[in-house]
Amino acid sequence: MSNQKVAYITGGTKGIGFGIARILLGNDISVAFSGRKQEDVEKAEQELKQYSENVLGIVSDVRNLESEQEAVQRITEKFGRLDFVIANAGLGVFKPVDELSAEEWNSMIETNLTGAFYTLKASVEELKKTEGYYITVSSLAGANFFENGTGYNASKFGVVGFTQAAMIDLRKYNIKSTVIMPGSVATNFNGNIPSEKDNWKIQPEDMGNLVLDILKMNPRVLPSKIEFRATKPA
Ligand SMILES: NC(=O)c1ccc[n+]([C@@H]2O[C@H](COP(=O)([O-])OP(=O)(O)OC[C@H]3O[C@@H](n4cnc5c(N)ncnc54)[C@H](OP(=O)(O)O)[C@@H]3O)[C@@H](O)[C@H]2O)c1
């Protein structure tokens, strides 16, 4: 087994996942990341190669367990191990509950919540081998409900509960788990195009540095739930 640790980040083609990938690659961690479209995955892989050659882009959809199992197989074939899994892929549709369609509801539950479970399900045996780390990206919307947020709130409250219960199951194997609950991050989320107006927000590289700090903590301590917010919201 190679000594270099290996991370798998779901939804790494842009935004938070890309920011985490960039920081981990710059700190001697090999990175596999996923996205749904071949061309977006290839483009992100090319961009990430400037930080390290130890990067692997994978086309995978977190809503599909088989696809996640194949992704993990590709990671272990290429890198020989898997140490850190970051379940980040997610989306939001914000509408009053009476206007939210069943399809929109399902897209959030299946991606944000079931996707986090499928990613863990596909990788947990590898994490047992490396006594690794499982991190989920929930949201401050996982603790605070708001107008037009029913489906998103439900999925992100779910991710908080899921990760904390998984934390108790997994620590028996010396696998640590953390749920991160970010406030506003300057990404493409919900159709946003990052620009100067987003300078007050958490930046994707701040998320990367947070993940790096978490991974470096002494094995005896476990920050199981982290609220992470902009210092001065606009
Ligand atoms: N931005 C914020 O203010 C904020 C705040 C709190 C929490 N979050 C959470 O942070 C996470 C990342 O969001 P972001 O802000 O970085 O948004 P983003 O810029 O829109 O990026 C979302 C990422 O998720 C991927 N993705 C979406 N559905 C997927 C699926 N079914 N399978 C695999 N990958 C999928 C997208 O890849 P493709 O489109 O290429 O498939 C993309 O890489 C989400 O869980 C979001 O809820 C965001």
From TrEMBL:
InterPro entries documented for this protein: NAD(P)-bd_dom_sf (IPR036291), Sc_DH/Rdtase_CS (IPR020904), SDR_fam (IPR002347)
Coiled-coil segments: 34-61
GO MF annotation list: oxidoreductase activity
Gene3D superfamilies registered for this protein in UniProt: NAD(P)-binding Rossmann-like Domain
Sorted UniProt keywords: Aromatic hydrocarbons catabolism, Coiled coil, NAD, Oxidoreductase
NCBIfam families (UniProt xref): PRK07326.1
Family: Belongs to the short-chain dehydrogenases/reductases (SDR) family.
Protein name (database record): Short-chain dehydrogenase
Organism: Chryseobacterium kwangjuense
